[in-house]
Specification:
Blueprint (H helix, E strand, L loop, with lengths): L5 E4 L2 E4 L10 H5 L3 E2 L2 E6 L2 E5 L1 H14 L8 H14 L5 E9 L13 E8 L11 E5 L20 H13 L4 E3 L14 E6 L2 E5 L8 H12 L4 E4 L3 H5 L3 E6 L3 E8 L2 E2 L7 H14 L10 E3 L2
Parallel strand pairs: 8-9, 8-14, 11-12
Antiparallel strand pairs: 1-2, 1-7, 3-6, 4-5, 4-6, 5-16, 6-7, 10-11, 10-13, 13-14, 14-15
The chain binds 4'-deoxy-4'-aminopyridoxal-5'-phosphate.
4'-deoxy-4'-aminopyridoxal-5'-phosphate binds next to helix 5 and strand 13.
Length: about 300
């Protein structure tokens, strides 16, 4: 990875190589931490962070699910993100805030451990195929059961489910995995939400097993502006495989066309027309070229 100058930890800007943790950091062992993935894009008025307040709200919500008290205000974390991007002199980057239980006791219950906060930023390009339509495998692993976890929180340990699915998909020659939920319906990718187009209408799962992401919300807004009808509903494997177009959404993946689901070819393995239309408006929004959505940008001053 391309490194940056500084990493923010507990209100200090440390050199990249000095941003280390103790081996007995509680979160490192048991996954009880929370994080976010955010992106900064260049605009005519300089770098801007996309949907920063929403991401920080989700970070605090996820922390509250673990009864973690973040020792900083939301305002402080937002300002730290903006200042860090400036110090690292980045015009486009990925941002990773993480809140973790530090080193104090090793029992499973984290009570008594300090709550530490780190923020890293670095340049990070297309996460999946970018322009190409990718190959997706319906995973043999199902999405974590909503009664086993709090599905709408973004918690470090949940990602072991994603790691198993990704390893399996890559080993079988696919680019990415797709989870079904415990009822056998379409859920989401390891780090992405999914949409399908059928008869010029957009569909996305309303499953209670998924993280309903901000890119998903952005796409729903774009579709409404385009007068494309959107429906959040249960989607079966058969329905997905008969779609005209399919794409993933996520902060890292952005809008990623899908060309095959298992052995089923979608839209001749090409990005679909509606997908491309939504993608081009998404690009305009994140680069500050859509006045209506300037409200979603926090500028680095
Ligand atoms: N689902 C999961 C499991 C994720 O990790 C992510 C990435 N945060 C998403 C969906 C997409 O969320 P967002 O659009 O907010 O990045």
């Amino acid at each position: 990875m391309e490194i940056s100058r500084k990493i923010w930890i507990n209100d200090k800007f440390l050199n990249w190589d000095d941003a280390n943790i103790h081996i007995l950091t509680h979160t490192f062992h048991y996954g009880g931490g929370v994080f976010e993935g955010i992106r900064t894009y260049n605009t005519k008025k300089g770098p801007a962070v996309f949907r920063l307040p929403e991401h920080i709200d989700r970070l605090f919500y996820s922390a509250s699910c673990l009864e973690m008290e973040i020792p900083f205000t939301k305002e402080k974390i937002k300002n730290a993100v903006l200042e860090l991007i400036k110090i690292n002199n980045l015009s486009e980057c990925y941002i990773r805030p993480i809140v973790y239980f530090g080193y104090e006791n090793m029992g499973l219950n984290p009570k008594g451990c300090p709550v530490d906060v780190g923020i890293a930023t670095w340049p990070w390009g297309a996460y999946l195929g970018g322009r190409e339509a990718i190959k997706v495998k319906i995973s043999k692993y199902i999405r974590l059961h909503p009664k086993s976890i709090i599905s709408d929180a973004k918690i470090c340990g949940y990602y072991i489910n994603s790691i198993f699915a990704s390893l399996d998909a890559k080993k079988s020659g696919f680019d990415e995995a797709l989870f079904l939920d415990f009822e056998g319906n379409i859920a989401e990718g390891p780090g992405e939400n999914i949409f399908m187009v059928k008869d010029e209408k957009l569909f996305t799962p309303n499953s209670n097993s998924i993280l309903k992401g901000f890119t998903r919300d952005t796409v729903i807004n774009i579709a409404k502006d385009l007068n494309v009808e959107v429906e959040e509903k249960t989607i079966t494997v058969e329905e997905l495989k008969s779609a005209d177009e399919i794409f993933f959404t996520g902060t890292a993946a952005e809008i990623q066309p899908i060309g095959t689901i298992d052995e089923t070819i979608i839209n001749r393995r090409k990005p679909g027309e509606i997908t491309e239309k939504i993608k081009s408006i998404y690009q305009k929004i994140i680069h500050g070229e859509e006045d209506k959505y300037l409200k979603w940008l926090s500028f680095v001053k």
